[in-house]
Amino acid sequence: ASDIGECGDNVRYRLSKDGILTIYGEGSMWSENLPWAPATLSSDNYSIKMINIGYGITDIPSSAFYNCRRVSSIAIPDGVENIGKEAFHRCDSLKRIVIPKSVKKIEEGTFSGCNNLTEINFVEESEIEYIGSKAFDDTAWFDDQSENYDGALYIGKCLYRYFGDTKEEFFTVKDGTVTICYRAMENQESLKEITFPNSLEYI
Hints:
This protein is mainly beta. The chain is about 5% helix and about 30% strand. The strands form five sheets. A five-stranded mixed sheet has the order 1-2-3-5-7, with no helix packed on it. A five-stranded parallel sheet has the order 4-6-8-10-12, with no helix packed on it. It has a three-stranded mixed sheet with strand order 13-14-16, covered by helices on one side. A hairpin with a 2-residue loop joins strand 13 (about 150-155) and strand 14. The longest helix is centred in the C-terminal third of the chain and has 9 residues, at about 140-150.
């Protein structure tokens, strides 16, 4: 039999015996005391293998799926606007994720520790305006960018990181950028001057 219950004021969940967690309804999930969460955040939640979040859900709260270490598939629908701090921390069976256009904010450490996450797909017209510190650290995707990407990596409206060495004294952040992310220009020792656009709101 499935485990069925509430996980928000207008949100319900169903966890099947084979580990498929389906979340459906409208609005935000609860920010704490989610029914499927392990007793402590240091515990591992091995019961969930697949997460399907339905249309109508707008927020994924902090630590929502922390340590769900057998999760290999997560479906985030268009309509989700915010993904909370460490929401998918240490989901280390996860290999691929698609971030829909509706997402505007990814908090710190959201996917950190997802060691086998090799593919993060951002839609071409991404509206992301904020990415918190270490959101993708300790993922295979981040390691690949660090080794193979050369230049400024923009995600949505964020300057996420400058990989490689600019070897330039001057750098201009492109128009439309809202956020310069944590450690975005780390180790760029040649830089003497950065020009910011009027659109910039967060550093």
